[in-house]
Design goal:
Number of strands: 4
Order of helices and strands: HEHEEEH
Distance between the termini: 36 Å
Strand content: 5-15%
Length: about 80
Amino acid sequence: MAAKQILVAAGVLEGATCTAYPALQPDIEMAGGSWHAVATTFDNAHTHGTLVTAPAWPAHPEWMRQFLAVLGSRVEP
């Protein structure tokens, strides 16, 4: 089960914008959420408030950047 399917089942996507694997777009929209387009390389992430979502594993670096920003963290070399 994909993480977004858990959010759909929990009823917490109403009014939220998120991204996921394209096959989940209908589920997100039926749950009252808005779909954020997926990059052809599946490496994009999307933040809506404190909800950070991504479509697949190639987005892990971008997802982590956005998640750390939501937490207020700074990563420096």
